[in-house]
Structure formats: C-alpha cells, structure tokens
Amino acid sequence: MGHDHGGTGVKHRGRLAAVLGLSLGVFCVEAVAAAVTGSLALLADAGHMLGDSVGIAMALAAIAVAQRGGAPGSRRTFGYHRTEVLAAGLNGLVLLVLAGFVVWSAIGRLGSQVQLEATPILIAGSIGLVANVVGLLLLRPGAAESLNVRGAYLEVLGDALGSIAVLVSATVIALSGWTPADAIASLVIAALIVPRALSLLRDVAEVLLEATPRDVDLVELRSHIMGLDGVLDVHDLHVWTITSGMPVMSAHVVVDESITQMGQAHAVLDGLRDCLADHFDVEHSTFQIEPAGHEDSEQHVHH
Description:
By secondary structure, this protein is mostly helical. It is built from nine helices and three strands.
C-alpha cells in the first residue's frame, strides 16, 4: 500500500491501467495453459499475476479516492477509504492460501513423474515475460516519483521473475524430460508470493490496529510541535492511518498565557497545520488548544 496522496501518481494512471490490462491478460493465458497442460508452475505464476493485478488495481483506486475525496457521510465520516485496506487483507489471505496449495501440490509431485507438454508452457511463459518487460518499461519513469507506481513496478518485477522460473522449468522439461522441474519452479514462485502476502497482511494489521505509520517519528513530531511559538506542551498525541497515503493525527496542545485572543489561537493552529503538512506529510490533523493546567482536569490522558 503506497503513500502518495494521489498527487504524483495521477499522471501515471494511464500507465498503471495499461499494466493492469497486461497483467490480467497474462493471468488468463497462463490459467488456461495451466489447466490444459497440468503445469503447476504456470498455475502458481497465474495466481501470482492475479494477486499483483489486485495490487495494481488498488493503487489505481487509491489515486481515484485521493482525487475525489471518498464521499464521507454521517455514518462513515472518512467515506470508504478503508475499502482498499479490506481488499488488501483479502488479497493477502488469498495469496497465502494459493502459496500453501502450490507448496503442498509441488511436494506431492516431486517424487513422481507426470506428463507435461513443454511447448505450451514455453509459449505461455514467454507471453508472460514479454508482458512483464513491457510493464516494467511503462512503470519505470514513474517509479522514482510515486510510491504507488513504485509498488506496482516491484510487483511486476516479481511477476517477471516468476515467468523466468516457468521458462527455465519448461526448457529443462523440453531438453531432458525431467518433469519435477515444474514442481521446483512452482516452489520458487511460491517463495516469491509469500513475502508479498505477509507484507500485505502486516500493513493491513497496522492500519486496523491504528499503529503509528512507520515513516512518522513521534519523538521528532512532538519536538516540532513544542518548537512552535506559544506552545508549552503537547499530550494525547496520536497518529494513525485511515488508508494508504492518508495519515491523520490528533493532539491536545497546551499554549502559554499570552494566547488569549481567537486570532492568536488561529495563528498557533496555522503553524501546527503547516508544520504537520510540510515536515510529516500529514494533511488531516485535529488539535485541541488548552490553557496551562487544563490537563489536570482530564481523566483519561494518553501521553
């Protein structure tokens, strides 16, 4: 899940959509070829392609949501932003199940000989590799500008490695007739799938548990807030993520006795907002301005 706010990713949306189309096309080709040939490596790579296609689709959805705002309502005050998180969690679980099935099937095949036609496997694997190379070329210009695009680029790179594993196994089968190469290739692809799935599930868990984003240092954040004119202290400081690219925060800010007018409080709030947006990329922040000593009357304070 990227951290992009949709900004730099918008101009690369067409490239992402093109790569998504390529990935889904390759998935269909490899899934049909796997069903026809019985190749476990092709089935694993098709599943890998489908999982990463979902990832690219979520990157596109994140850009669209960032542009349109997510339509908040009275019951869903942040709109449907977390739909992306739920989709990522489901994607991670499906990938883990797929990897488990592939490993279980591959182990069963290692000790036996199965009849596999190398030529259809080579054709399907070649189509996959060519499509992945085209995808890498399309995404490479934006990979350095947008984390959403970079995430998609790395997914396509993983798919390319899977296609190479399919081609190597098919070549071994064509030259020697040693069909366990297909099972070994499927294990290699499963090894590529599992880290992606676990990473997705870890990110989903952190969002749902409202953990502090990994790129936000609370100590540094507190220091920046304390450094603003008129600020004496900060407590009840919380930073969490609604969805990828949407960190939010809330805090109680204690101001000194010189802040007595609404205009002065407004200046403090402007400084806090600018500090968060400029230094920590937090666009949505909520502050409670308090006079010194107010904290003592609060019963539930989380420092």
